[in-house]
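Technical note accompanying the year-one report. For the benefit of new consortium partners, we illustrate the data format agreed upon in the data management plan: each record pairs a sequence with a C-alpha coordinate string. No post-processing was applied to the example shown here.
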Amino acid sequence: EWGLDDFVLKQISQGEIPFLGRIVTEGNKIYKIITKEGLITGEVPGKAIYDAAGTDDFPAVGDWVLLDRLNGQSGNAIILKVLTRKSKLSRKVAGKRFDEQIIATNIDTIFIAMSVNNDFNIRRLERYLTIVWDSMAMPVILLTKIDLSQNIDDKMLEIEEAAPGVDIITTSAVTGEGVQQINKYLGLGKTVAFVGSSGVGKSSIINYLKGEMVMAVKELRNDDKGRHTTTHRQLVPMASGGIIIDTPGMREIQIMDVETSLDKTFTDIETLAKNCKFSNCQHQSEPGCAINEALETGILDQSRWDNYLKMKKEIDYFIRKTDKKAESEYWNKIKKRSKLIKEITSNGRKRSD
Protein backbone atom coordinates (compact mmCIF):
# COMPACT_ATOMS: atom_id res chain seq x y z
CA GLU A 1 0.00 0.00 0.00
CA TRP A 2 0.95 3.68 -0.44
CA GLY A 3 3.43 2.79 -3.18
CA LEU A 4 5.50 0.36 -1.12
CA ASP A 5 7.79 -1.68 -3.38
CA ASP A 6 10.85 -3.93 -3.30
CA PHE A 7 13.21 -0.94 -3.62
CA VAL A 8 12.07 0.18 -0.16
CA LEU A 9 11.76 -3.25 1.46
CA LYS A 10 15.33 -4.17 0.53
CA GLN A 11 16.60 -1.25 2.62
CA ILE A 12 15.05 -2.33 5.93
CA SER A 13 14.92 -5.37 8.21
CA GLN A 14 11.79 -7.31 9.09
CA GLY A 15 11.75 -5.75 12.53
CA GLU A 16 11.78 -2.21 11.12
CA ILE A 17 8.69 -2.68 8.93
CA PRO A 18 6.19 -1.63 11.67
CA PHE A 19 8.10 1.64 12.09
CA LEU A 20 8.06 2.44 8.37
CA GLY A 21 6.10 5.44 7.10
CA ARG A 22 5.76 7.63 4.03
CA ILE A 23 5.64 11.44 3.96
CA VAL A 24 2.18 12.52 2.78
CA THR A 25 2.48 16.29 3.27
CA GLU A 26 5.08 18.66 4.68
CA GLY A 27 5.03 22.14 6.18
CA ASN A 28 7.60 24.07 8.20
CA LYS A 29 9.54 20.89 9.10
CA ILE A 30 6.36 19.22 10.38
CA TYR A 31 5.23 16.18 8.40
CA LYS A 32 2.07 14.15 7.99
CA ILE A 33 3.16 10.52 7.69
CA ILE A 34 1.12 7.47 6.73
CA THR A 35 2.03 4.28 8.62
CA LYS A 36 0.55 0.83 9.03
CA GLU A 37 -1.39 2.21 12.02
CA GLY A 38 -2.70 5.27 10.17
CA LEU A 39 -1.79 8.94 9.73
CA ILE A 40 0.50 10.54 12.32
CA THR A 41 2.49 13.76 12.69
CA GLY A 42 6.27 13.61 12.67
CA GLU A 43 9.27 15.89 12.90
CA VAL A 44 13.03 15.85 12.40
CA PRO A 45 15.22 15.76 15.55
CA GLY A 46 17.13 18.90 16.45
CA LYS A 47 20.54 17.35 15.77
CA ALA A 48 19.52 16.45 12.22
CA ILE A 49 18.37 20.03 11.62
CA TYR A 50 21.69 21.34 12.96
CA ASP A 51 23.76 18.93 10.82
CA ALA A 52 21.74 19.47 7.61
CA ALA A 53 23.79 20.97 4.79
CA GLY A 54 20.72 21.83 2.68
CA THR A 55 17.17 20.92 1.76
CA ASP A 56 18.30 17.57 0.37
CA ASP A 57 18.99 16.43 3.93
CA PHE A 58 15.38 16.93 5.01
CA PRO A 59 12.44 14.61 4.29
CA ALA A 60 10.20 15.50 1.35
CA VAL A 61 6.77 14.43 0.11
CA GLY A 62 7.07 10.86 -1.15
CA ASP A 63 9.98 9.90 1.12
CA TRP A 64 9.96 6.62 3.03
CA VAL A 65 11.13 7.11 6.62
CA LEU A 66 11.76 5.11 9.79
CA LEU A 67 10.09 6.43 12.95
CA ASP A 68 10.65 6.01 16.68
CA ARG A 69 7.02 5.06 17.46
CA LEU A 70 3.92 3.48 15.99
CA ASN A 71 1.42 6.24 16.85
CA GLY A 72 1.23 9.83 18.02
CA GLN A 73 -0.36 9.24 21.43
CA SER A 74 2.78 10.41 23.23
CA GLY A 75 3.58 13.33 20.91
CA ASN A 76 5.00 13.79 17.45
CA ALA A 77 6.92 10.88 16.01
CA ILE A 78 10.63 11.46 15.46
CA ILE A 79 11.99 10.71 12.00
CA LEU A 80 15.08 8.59 12.61
CA LYS A 81 16.07 7.94 9.01
CA VAL A 82 15.12 8.85 5.45
CA LEU A 83 15.54 5.83 3.19
CA THR A 84 17.46 6.10 -0.08
CA ARG A 85 15.37 7.70 -2.84
CA LYS A 86 14.97 5.99 -6.20
CA SER A 87 14.03 9.31 -7.82
CA LYS A 88 13.86 12.97 -6.88
CA LEU A 89 12.07 15.76 -8.75
CA SER A 90 13.54 19.14 -7.89
CA ARG A 91 14.27 22.60 -9.22
CA LYS A 92 16.16 25.71 -8.21
CA VAL A 93 14.14 27.85 -5.82
CA ALA A 94 12.58 30.97 -7.32
CA GLY A 95 14.53 34.19 -6.98
CA LYS A 96 18.26 34.85 -6.63
CA ARG A 97 19.09 32.08 -4.15
CA PHE A 98 20.73 28.90 -5.44
CA ASP A 99 19.04 26.43 -3.10
CA GLU A 100 17.30 23.28 -4.26
CA GLN A 101 13.55 22.85 -3.86
CA ILE A 102 12.52 19.20 -3.74
CA ILE A 103 9.08 18.79 -5.29
CA ALA A 104 8.57 15.06 -4.62
CA THR A 105 10.51 11.82 -4.33
CA ASN A 106 10.25 8.10 -5.10
CA ILE A 107 8.21 8.60 -8.25
CA ASP A 108 7.97 6.09 -11.10
CA THR A 109 6.22 8.27 -13.70
CA ILE A 110 5.79 12.03 -13.96
CA PHE A 111 2.91 13.43 -16.00
CA ILE A 112 3.70 16.84 -17.48
CA ALA A 113 0.25 18.41 -17.85
CA MET A 114 -0.27 21.06 -20.51
CA SER A 115 -3.65 22.29 -21.75
CA VAL A 116 -4.50 23.05 -25.38
CA ASN A 117 -5.44 26.69 -24.75
CA ASN A 118 -3.01 29.54 -24.19
CA ASP A 119 -1.07 27.42 -21.69
CA PHE A 120 0.29 25.40 -24.60
CA ASN A 121 4.00 26.26 -24.69
CA ILE A 122 6.62 23.97 -26.24
CA ARG A 123 9.55 25.93 -24.83
CA ARG A 124 8.20 25.51 -21.27
CA LEU A 125 7.61 21.81 -21.98
CA GLU A 126 11.32 21.48 -22.77
CA ARG A 127 12.11 22.87 -19.33
CA TYR A 128 9.77 20.41 -17.63
CA LEU A 129 11.26 17.53 -19.61
CA THR A 130 14.75 18.49 -18.47
CA ILE A 131 13.97 18.42 -14.75
CA VAL A 132 11.92 15.22 -15.16
CA TRP A 133 14.74 13.40 -16.97
CA ASP A 134 17.05 14.58 -14.18
CA SER A 135 14.72 13.11 -11.54
CA MET A 136 15.29 9.53 -12.79
CA ALA A 137 11.52 9.08 -13.26
CA MET A 138 9.89 8.50 -16.66
CA PRO A 139 8.09 11.45 -18.29
CA VAL A 140 4.66 11.24 -19.90
CA ILE A 141 3.10 14.29 -21.55
CA LEU A 142 -0.53 14.86 -20.61
CA LEU A 143 -2.35 17.13 -23.08
CA THR A 144 -5.46 18.30 -21.22
CA LYS A 145 -8.76 20.01 -22.10
CA ILE A 146 -8.78 18.64 -25.65
CA ASP A 147 -12.52 19.35 -25.76
CA LEU A 148 -11.56 23.03 -26.16
CA SER A 149 -9.53 22.66 -29.36
CA GLN A 150 -10.09 21.55 -32.94
CA ASN A 151 -6.42 21.32 -34.01
CA ILE A 152 -5.13 18.59 -31.68
CA ASP A 153 -3.14 16.95 -34.50
CA ASP A 154 -1.03 20.08 -35.02
CA LYS A 155 -0.26 20.29 -31.30
CA MET A 156 0.58 16.60 -31.15
CA LEU A 157 3.05 17.08 -34.01
CA GLU A 158 4.75 19.95 -32.16
CA ILE A 159 5.07 17.84 -29.02
CA GLU A 160 6.43 14.83 -30.90
CA GLU A 161 9.11 17.02 -32.50
CA ALA A 162 10.11 18.48 -29.12
CA ALA A 163 9.93 15.21 -27.18
CA PRO A 164 10.64 12.28 -29.49
CA GLY A 165 9.92 8.90 -27.93
CA VAL A 166 8.01 10.28 -24.93
CA ASP A 167 4.50 8.91 -24.36
CA ILE A 168 1.67 11.41 -24.98
CA ILE A 169 -1.87 11.09 -23.62
CA THR A 170 -4.66 13.40 -24.76
CA THR A 171 -7.37 13.92 -22.15
CA SER A 172 -10.53 15.77 -21.19
CA ALA A 173 -11.89 15.72 -17.63
CA VAL A 174 -15.20 16.98 -19.08
CA THR A 175 -15.82 14.10 -21.50
CA GLY A 176 -13.52 11.58 -19.82
CA GLU A 177 -11.68 10.97 -23.08
CA GLY A 178 -8.23 9.48 -22.56
CA VAL A 179 -8.25 9.73 -18.75
CA GLN A 180 -8.40 5.97 -18.20
CA GLN A 181 -5.13 5.59 -20.12
CA ILE A 182 -3.40 6.97 -17.03
CA ASN A 183 -4.41 3.88 -15.05
CA LYS A 184 -1.86 1.69 -16.82
CA TYR A 185 0.85 3.65 -14.98
CA LEU A 186 -0.95 3.30 -11.63
CA GLY A 187 -0.51 -0.33 -10.64
CA LEU A 188 0.14 -1.65 -7.14
CA GLY A 189 3.32 -0.18 -5.68
CA LYS A 190 3.55 2.55 -8.33
CA THR A 191 3.78 6.28 -7.63
CA VAL A 192 3.07 8.94 -10.23
CA ALA A 193 3.23 12.73 -9.97
CA PHE A 194 1.43 15.48 -11.86
CA VAL A 195 3.30 18.71 -12.68
CA GLY A 196 2.32 21.69 -14.79
CA SER A 197 1.11 25.26 -14.69
CA SER A 198 -1.84 26.37 -12.56
CA GLY A 199 -5.28 25.75 -14.02
CA VAL A 200 -4.31 23.15 -16.63
CA GLY A 201 -6.64 20.56 -15.12
CA LYS A 202 -4.33 18.38 -12.98
CA SER A 203 -6.76 18.29 -10.05
CA SER A 204 -9.75 17.66 -12.34
CA ILE A 205 -7.99 14.64 -13.83
CA ILE A 206 -7.18 13.28 -10.37
CA ASN A 207 -10.79 13.73 -9.25
CA TYR A 208 -11.98 11.89 -12.36
CA LEU A 209 -9.61 8.99 -11.72
CA LYS A 210 -10.50 8.86 -8.04
CA GLY A 211 -14.23 9.03 -8.74
CA GLU A 212 -14.75 11.69 -6.09
CA MET A 213 -13.85 15.29 -5.30
CA VAL A 214 -10.53 14.87 -3.48
CA MET A 215 -8.82 17.96 -4.92
CA ALA A 216 -10.24 21.49 -5.13
CA VAL A 217 -10.73 22.69 -8.70
CA LYS A 218 -10.58 26.13 -10.31
CA GLU A 219 -10.44 26.91 -14.00
CA LEU A 220 -8.15 29.32 -15.80
CA ARG A 221 -9.05 32.98 -15.42
CA ASN A 222 -10.48 34.94 -18.35
CA ASP A 223 -6.95 35.97 -19.31
CA ASP A 224 -5.94 32.27 -19.42
CA LYS A 225 -3.66 32.71 -16.42
CA GLY A 226 -3.75 29.84 -13.95
CA ARG A 227 -5.20 30.01 -10.48
CA HIS A 228 -3.40 28.15 -7.72
CA THR A 229 -5.87 25.43 -6.71
CA THR A 230 -3.39 22.98 -5.18
CA THR A 231 -1.38 24.90 -2.59
CA HIS A 232 0.81 22.07 -1.32
CA ARG A 233 2.13 18.69 -2.44
CA GLN A 234 0.27 15.65 -1.20
CA LEU A 235 -0.19 11.93 -1.78
CA VAL A 236 -3.53 10.61 -3.03
CA PRO A 237 -4.10 6.81 -2.78
CA MET A 238 -5.94 5.14 -5.66
CA ALA A 239 -8.10 2.00 -5.69
CA SER A 240 -5.52 0.28 -7.91
CA GLY A 241 -2.99 0.46 -5.09
CA GLY A 242 -1.01 3.18 -6.84
CA ILE A 243 -0.31 6.67 -5.52
CA ILE A 244 -0.72 10.07 -7.18
CA ILE A 245 1.26 13.09 -6.03
CA ASP A 246 -0.43 16.36 -6.97
CA THR A 247 1.76 19.46 -6.99
CA PRO A 248 1.01 23.20 -7.04
CA GLY A 249 1.27 24.95 -10.38
CA MET A 250 4.74 26.28 -11.18
CA ARG A 251 5.15 29.78 -12.53
CA GLU A 252 8.92 29.37 -12.79
CA ILE A 253 10.89 26.27 -13.73
CA GLN A 254 14.41 27.23 -12.82
CA ILE A 255 16.96 24.53 -13.49
CA MET A 256 20.16 23.53 -11.70
CA ASP A 257 23.20 21.46 -12.74
CA VAL A 258 21.24 19.24 -15.12
CA GLU A 259 23.53 19.28 -18.16
CA THR A 260 23.20 15.53 -18.85
CA SER A 261 19.41 15.80 -18.73
CA LEU A 262 19.53 18.83 -21.03
CA ASP A 263 21.32 16.68 -23.60
CA LYS A 264 18.57 14.08 -23.24
CA THR A 265 15.87 16.69 -23.87
CA PHE A 266 17.72 18.07 -26.89
CA THR A 267 19.08 14.86 -28.41
CA ASP A 268 18.63 16.27 -31.91
CA ILE A 269 20.96 19.17 -31.14
CA GLU A 270 23.55 16.89 -29.56
CA THR A 271 23.45 14.66 -32.63
CA LEU A 272 23.83 17.62 -35.01
CA ALA A 273 26.76 19.02 -33.00
CA LYS A 274 28.69 15.78 -33.49
CA ASN A 275 28.59 16.40 -37.26
CA CYS A 276 30.36 19.77 -37.05
CA LYS A 277 33.69 19.98 -38.90
CA PHE A 278 35.54 20.99 -35.73
CA SER A 279 35.13 19.13 -32.43
CA ASN A 280 35.36 22.40 -30.48
CA CYS A 281 32.88 24.23 -32.73
CA GLN A 282 31.10 27.08 -30.92
CA HIS A 283 28.27 27.11 -33.52
CA GLN A 284 28.78 30.75 -34.39
CA SER A 285 30.66 31.53 -37.62
CA GLU A 286 32.89 28.46 -37.94
CA PRO A 287 32.97 26.75 -41.36
CA GLY A 288 31.32 23.36 -41.53
CA CYS A 289 29.03 24.01 -38.55
CA ALA A 290 26.19 21.47 -38.69
CA ILE A 291 24.06 23.52 -36.27
CA ASN A 292 24.16 26.65 -38.45
CA GLU A 293 23.42 24.58 -41.53
CA ALA A 294 20.39 23.00 -39.81
CA LEU A 295 19.13 26.45 -38.77
CA GLU A 296 19.49 27.79 -42.31
CA THR A 297 17.67 24.84 -43.88
CA GLY A 298 14.93 24.78 -41.24
CA ILE A 299 15.83 21.32 -39.94
CA LEU A 300 16.42 22.90 -36.53
CA ASP A 301 13.88 25.44 -35.27
CA GLN A 302 15.47 28.74 -34.22
CA SER A 303 13.34 29.04 -31.06
CA ARG A 304 14.33 25.51 -29.98
CA TRP A 305 18.01 26.39 -30.46
CA ASP A 306 17.57 29.67 -28.56
CA ASN A 307 15.87 27.85 -25.69
CA TYR A 308 18.67 25.30 -25.58
CA LEU A 309 21.30 28.06 -25.36
CA LYS A 310 19.30 29.89 -22.67
CA MET A 311 18.96 26.78 -20.52
CA LYS A 312 22.61 25.84 -21.01
CA LYS A 313 23.61 29.33 -19.90
CA GLU A 314 21.45 28.97 -16.75
CA ILE A 315 23.09 25.62 -15.96
CA ASP A 316 26.61 27.04 -16.39
CA TYR A 317 25.71 30.00 -14.16
CA PHE A 318 24.25 27.73 -11.47
CA ILE A 319 27.37 25.54 -11.49
CA ARG A 320 29.65 28.56 -11.18
CA LYS A 321 27.67 29.98 -8.27
CA THR A 322 27.64 26.70 -6.37
CA ASP A 323 31.16 25.48 -7.25
CA LYS A 324 34.07 27.76 -6.28
CA LYS A 325 36.47 25.90 -8.56
CA ALA A 326 34.15 26.32 -11.55
CA GLU A 327 33.72 30.02 -10.72
CA SER A 328 37.49 30.51 -10.56
CA GLU A 329 38.06 28.68 -13.85
CA TYR A 330 35.37 30.82 -15.51
CA TRP A 331 36.94 34.12 -14.47
CA ASN A 332 40.44 32.93 -15.41
CA LYS A 333 39.07 32.11 -18.86
CA ILE A 334 37.53 35.59 -19.12
CA LYS A 335 40.84 37.21 -18.08
CA LYS A 336 42.82 35.21 -20.67
CA ARG A 337 40.33 36.12 -23.37
CA SER A 338 40.49 39.82 -22.44
CA LYS A 339 44.30 39.69 -22.44
CA LEU A 340 44.32 38.06 -25.89
CA ILE A 341 41.95 40.69 -27.31
CA LYS A 342 44.17 43.50 -25.94
CA GLU A 343 47.28 41.91 -27.49
CA ILE A 344 45.59 41.53 -30.88
CA THR A 345 44.31 45.11 -30.73
CA SER A 346 47.75 46.42 -29.68
CA ASN A 347 49.57 44.52 -32.45
CA GLY A 348 47.08 45.86 -35.00
CA ARG A 349 47.77 49.43 -33.93
CA LYS A 350 51.56 48.92 -34.16
CA ARG A 351 51.27 47.58 -37.72
CA SER A 352 49.13 50.61 -38.65
CA ASP A 353 51.80 52.95 -37.31
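Partners are asked to follow this layout when depositing records. Residues 260-352 form a domain with the Ribonucleotide Reductase Protein R1; domain 1 fold (CATH 1.10.40.50).
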